């Protein structure tokens, strides 16, 4: 029976479980698999018929992982400022990166690598105090008892062959049990739920199974909505998303996996800009890298992670453990707030040429400083009139020498919890 106290309790449990995720702000996504060898679309290249399945499988030969260095990967991720990582344990092509007992299409039995990829990476993440996220594709287009094979070739319909579908359910849920036993992930990142509905996937059962094993595990929403947080993909939400917990997953160029011919990288500045928009709206960024078939991370991607890392470390107080910021009318840029809402962080792009403006701040400002740099800043309030509680416009003087090369962050220590003026201007007319 539903009771108010029960629902308050479950909200508390949810908040406690989600807290590390909410505080983390940045995760690194890793797409690594057979597709990294030729540098073609992950799984989709054969599904959509750009290459035959047979030729796609030939990439097992080139999947050597000979320069795979899980410790260096984890250290680079740490250096970027990320607090968690999500790696593809198995993409839609069905190629598993661990020693699964369910079939032999995996990096130990079916590829030149002949090794378990996940085990050493998971332990390197944990050694670096990073949370472990495992991406798992529900569809497995190579598996003999899965319904879909390619875009225009379906093996069977569930209605016609329920037993065959049951074989698949046993297979995929067995793999998930293995992942849970071997790695006890902090986060499961499902993908591909669009091919079947919740009943067909047995989504509630899978959720229950995983949470029975680890009540603190977080699930993304792509388990037919039986997850804990929303996953907008590529497109940065323009208006703040409705969901309490969300994560934007985004590529650095235009591809998830390694593609030699994709040079369309976002600049570090652009990535920082998108990241600050994300945290300003209360979300996380899951930024993707795509290692090559031999395990090398492309140098463009290493460079972005390193530059990004310098910036996140310098500005950590404005990032981690903060909450989303204030409405845009008050400041034309991204903002975050300390959890107790007494410090407001302003993210300033480029050179403001002297002044940064904030409107309608009712609080008194006790101190303003440049985050990660320390200089104290002066400010002046204009347009405040004695006959109205309209608080005026605050101009903060920002000398050029304090500016960060990528994005400057300014902290405002307020005299209490932030209080914003949301009424009309200083009204004088009587009604
Ligand atoms: C999509 C694609 C997939 C990619 C994923 C990452 O769902 O199917 O290839 O791995 O997005 O979010």
How would you explain this protein's 3D organization?
- There is one protein chain.
- The protein has 431 residues and is of the alpha/beta class.
- It is 30% helix and 19% strand.
- The protein has 13 helices and 17 strands.
- It has helices spanning 4-24, 35-38, 44-47, 53-57, 59-62, 70-80, 118-127, 162-183, 198-201, 203-213, 268-280, 299-314, 316-319, and strands at residues 26-30, 84-90, 131-137, 148-150, 153-154, 187-191, 218-219, 247-250, 284-289, 323-324, 335-337, 343-349, 354-359, 365-370, 379-382, 393-398, 407-414.
- Strand 4 (148-150) and strand 5 (153-154) form a beta hairpin.
- Helix 6 (70-80) crosses helix 7 (118-127) and helix 8 (162-183) runs parallel beside helix 10 (203-213).
- Residues 31, 42, 191, 233, 249, 256 line the site of alpha-D-glucopyranose.
- Alpha-D-glucopyranose binds at residues 31, 42, 191, 233, 249, 256.
- One of its GO terms (biological process) is fucose metabolic process.
- InterPro entries: FUC_metazoa-typ, GH, Glyco_hydro_29, Glyco_hydro_29_N.
- It is an enzyme of class 3 (hydrolase).
Question: Could you outline the blueprint of secondary structure elements for this entry?
Answer:
Elements: H1 4-24, E1 26-30, H2 35-38, H3 44-47, H4 53-57, H5 59-62, H6 70-80, E2 84-90, H7 118-127, E3 131-137, E4 148-150, E5 153-154, H8 162-183, E6 187-191, H9 198-201, H10 203-213, E7 218-219, E8 247-250, H11 268-280, E9 284-289, H12 299-314, H13 316-319, E10 323-324, E11 335-337, E12 343-349, E13 354-359, E14 365-370, E15 379-382, E16 393-398, E17 407-414
Parallel strand pairs: 1-2, 1-9, 2-3, 3-6, 6-7, 8-9
Antiparallel strand pairs: 4-5, 10-11, 11-12, 12-17, 13-16, 14-17, 15-16
Helix pairs in contact: 6-7, 6-12, 8-10
The protein binds alpha-D-glucopyranose.
The site of alpha-D-glucopyranose (GLC) has 6 residues, from loops.
């Amino acid at each position: 029976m539903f009771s108010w106290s029960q629902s308050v309790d479950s909200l508390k449990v949810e908040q406690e479980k989600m807290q590390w995720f909410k505080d983390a702000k940045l995760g690194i996504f890793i797409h690594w698999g057979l597709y990294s060898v030729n540098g073609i679309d992950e799984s989709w290249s054969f599904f959509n018929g750009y290459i035959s399945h047979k030729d796609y499988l030939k990439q097992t030969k080139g999947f050597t992982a000979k320069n795979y260095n899980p410790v260096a990967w984890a250290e680079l991720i740490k250096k970027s400022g990320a607090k968690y990582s999500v790696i593809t344990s198995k993409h839609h092509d069905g190629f598993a990166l661990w020693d699964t007992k369910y079939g032999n299409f995996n990096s130990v039995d079916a590829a030149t690598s002949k090794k378990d990829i996940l085990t050493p990476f998971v332990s390197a993440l944990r050694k670096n105090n990073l949370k472990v996220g495992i991406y798992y594709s529900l569809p497995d287009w190579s598996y003999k008892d899965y319904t879909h094979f390619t875009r225009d070739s379906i093996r069977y319909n569930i209605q016609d062959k329920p037993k065959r579908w049951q074989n698949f359910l046993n297979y995929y849920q067995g793999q998930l049990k293995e992942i849970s036993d071997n790695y006890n992930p902090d986060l499961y990142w499902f993908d591909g739920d669009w091919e079947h509905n919740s009943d067909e996937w047995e989504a509630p059962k899978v959720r229950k199974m995983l949470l029975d094993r680890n009540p603190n595990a977080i699930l993304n929403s792509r388990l037919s909505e039986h997850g804990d947080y929303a996953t907008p993909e590529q497109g940065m939400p323009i208006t703040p998303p409705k969901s309490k917990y969300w994560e934007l997953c985004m590529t650095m160029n235009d591809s998830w996996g390694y593609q030699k011919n994709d040079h369309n990288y976002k600049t570090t500045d652009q990535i920082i800009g998108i990241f600050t928009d994300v945290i300003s709206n209360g979300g996380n960024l899951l930024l993707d890298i795509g290692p090559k078939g031999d395990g090398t991370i492309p140098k463009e991607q290493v460079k972005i992670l390193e530059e990004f890392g310098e910036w996140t470390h310098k500005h950590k107080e404005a990032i981690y453990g903060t909450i989303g910021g204030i409405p845009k009318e008050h400041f034309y840029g991204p903002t975050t707030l300390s959890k107790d809402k007494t410090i407001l962080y302003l993210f300033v792009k480029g050179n403001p040429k002297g002044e940064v403006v904030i409107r309608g701040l009712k609080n008194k400002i006790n101190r303003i400083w440049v985050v990660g740099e320390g200089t104290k800043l002066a400010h002046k309030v204009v347009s405040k009139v004695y006959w109205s509680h309209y608080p005026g416009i605050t101009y903060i003087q920002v000398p050029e020498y304090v500016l960060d090369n990528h994005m400057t962050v300014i902290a405002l220590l307020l005299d209490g919890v932030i209080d914003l003026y949301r009424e009309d201007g200083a009204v004088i007319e009587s009604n």
